[in-house]
Design goal:
single chain, 328 residues, mainly alpha, Fic-like fold, Multidrug-efflux Transporter Regulator, Chain: A, Domain 2, globular
Length: 328
């Protein structure tokens, strides 16, 4: 597998650093929902992307969905918050405790007796011929595994992350939650090394599972590596597209403005405008058929007021109050 294209993408992303804080926060929030949705969907969770966002961002329940599915979404988002904190450190400092803590968060309230604990019983993967290690061997295998992934080496960071994921699901140290924990660990290692998290799409579920089984049965890992490599590449494109200000064609829509048009009129980045919208500083007047937000032209003046108040060192809460008090 040629990892150099990803090295080049990282260099391109690095050329934009330091990244705008608003963009970082916006993309982190987007990735939390997207990674939660896709990772849980791979395991059979039926929450849609929008339903996952409702549970994760608003803490609301979705009619017709089970308590377990709600907990899976909330827990995964909480585990991702822990991963984001751990990502500030180095891969060489990862510990078994970190992995167990991530797993405990994944199964919290779902299976508390097994959350954060290695399995003590034999398990099988449904529909697979793969033979998993005896539970007695799991603690030693995990100790060796942790030493291997944290040892100095010359492996490409994406290969290291992919290998960590592969080894963890192959050891299958837990009764449940192995896949989700493995994907979180992989993404932790990626982010620690300056790479974006790998987005394995729901549509790639069968290819992904088949590629893992092929390798576990003694076949080539090339298919598996390609899936992970492509997943990281897609995430790079999301970052680079946002940074280069690419947006949908800025065609006039009546009297309303698309975000790209509002950005051109105010000199603000799309990431900043999205962040201010999420924080309630800007109001959305409508949406296009494709779901893109539309703004009233009055938001041009409001955007200028927000930037002025920021220059006066007002906090977001104070700016929100100022705008409200002025009837703006």
């Amino acid at each position: 597998m040629n990892w150099e294209r990803l090295t080049e993408k990282r260099a391109k992303l690095d050329s934009y650093r330091p990244l705008p804080p608003e963009l970082v926060q916006n993309l982190e929030q987007w990735f939390i929902v997207e990674l939660t949705y896709t990772s849980n969907a791979i395991e059979g969770n039926t929450l849609t992307r929008k339903e996952t966002a409702v549970v994760v961002e608003k803490g609301l329940t979705v009619s017709g969905k089970s308590l377990v599915e709600h907990l899976e979404a909330a827990n995964h988002a909480n585990a991702l918050q822990k991963v984001l904190q751990l990502a500030k450190g180095k891969t060489k400092d990862l510990t078994e405790h970190s992995i167990l803590d991530i797993h405990e968060t994944i199964l919290r309230g779902i299976d508390d007796s097994n959350a954060g604990h290695y399995r003590s019983i034999p398990v099988r993967i449904s529909g697979s011929m793969v033979v998993l290690p005896n539970p007695v061997k799991v603690p030693d295998l995990m100790t060796k595994f942790t030493k291997d992934i944290t040892a100095p080496g010359k492996r490409h960071p994406v290969e290291l992350a992919a290998e960590a994921h592969y080894q963890l699901v192959t050891i299958h140290p837990f009764v449940d939650g192995n896949g989700r924990t493995a994907r979180l660990l992989m993404n932790l290692i990626l982010m620690q090394n300056g790479y974006p998290p790998a987005l394995i799409r729901k549509r790639d579920r069968l290819r992904y599972i088949k590629s893992l089984e092929q390798a576990q049965l003694g076949g080539s890992k090339e298919d598996y590596y390609k899936i992970i490599s492509d997943a990281v590449d897609r995430s790079f494109e999301i970052y680079l597209k946002a940074l280069s200000q690419e947006e949908e064609p800025a065609q006039p829509t009546g009297k309303l403005l698309r975000i790209g048009q509002l950005g051109k009129l105010t000199g603000e980045s799309n990431a900043t405008l999205r962040f201010w919208t999420k924080e309630g500083l800007l109001e959305v007047a409508g949406t296009t058929e494709a779901g893109y937000q539309l703004y009233d032209p009055s938001m041009v003046e409001r955007t200028q007021k927000i930037r002025h108040l920021q220059g006066e060192r007002y906090t977001l809460r104070e700016i929100r109050t100022q705008l409200s008090s002025k009837g703006d």
